[in-house]
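lol forgot to send this yesterday, sorry. struct tokens for the thing we talked abt
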């Protein structure tokens, strides 16, 4: 029997709407749990990176799941928990951040580079202070148009920007997992069940080979 490198690790997963409902809070969470990790996932719809520094209400619901337990929807009461509190309580070996679409400014002509940088670095700096290993999962292609006006050039720009600015966290480029428009969406941004299954499995597989996880196991 081959033991996963994740066996015995405590993993905290935080992010936006992709972690709510039956999205990655099901597929990614289940995959990591099946490999022996203790997983705590919190998704807050509409959350930006900086929202995780203080208690911030969600704009469209949220959900939480601990270990092999059921998904607990938060509804209109959804709010973020400050990352410092989560780190103190969970004492995770690894933090996984799934975020990008909420900050990409799909509806704005200009890419909000300065604001995104402030959002991203404020969160990664706080995690870095605790010396907790972390990886940031960037946005996937989705579909152009739809409710959120997502475009392939902008999501590519967002992914590239994140890859250069999430240190000390490692970066997982979700654009490498599919071709533009390959995964069917319901609104341009959120995938159907098959898309979330493929994405969740791809993220979990990539986490296994990140330098951050390999470093944890060497301690």
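and heres what i got for the seq, position by position
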């Amino acid at each position: 029997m081959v033991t996963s490198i994740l066996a015995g690790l405590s993993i905290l997963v935080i992010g936006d709407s992709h972690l709510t409902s039956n999205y990655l809070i099901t597929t990614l969470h289940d995959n990591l749990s099946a490999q022996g990790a203790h997983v705590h996932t919190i998704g807050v719809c509409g959350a930006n990176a900086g929202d995780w520094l203080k208690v911030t209400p969600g704009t469209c619901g949220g959900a939480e799941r601990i270990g092999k337990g059921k998904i607990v929807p938060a509804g209109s009461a959804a709010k973020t928990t400050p990352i410092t509190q989560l780190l103190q309580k969970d004492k995770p070996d690894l933090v996984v951040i799934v975020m990008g679409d909420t900050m990409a400014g799909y509806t704005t002509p200009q890419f909000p580079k300065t604001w995104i940088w402030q959002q991203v670095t404020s969160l990664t700096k706080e995690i870095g202070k605790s010396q907790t290993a972390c990886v940031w999962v960037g946005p996937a292609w989705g579909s152009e148009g739809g409710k959120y006006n997502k475009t392939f050039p902008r999501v590519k720009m967002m992914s590239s920007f994140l890859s250069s600015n999430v240190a000390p966290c490692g970066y997982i480029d979700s654009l490498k997992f599919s071709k533009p428009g390959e995964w069917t969406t319901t609104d341009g941004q959120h995938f159907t069940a098959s898309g979330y299954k493929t994405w969740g499995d791809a993220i979990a597989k990539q986490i296994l080979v990140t330098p951050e996880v390999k470093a944890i196991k060497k301690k």
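The radius of gyration is 16 Å. anyway ping me if u want another try
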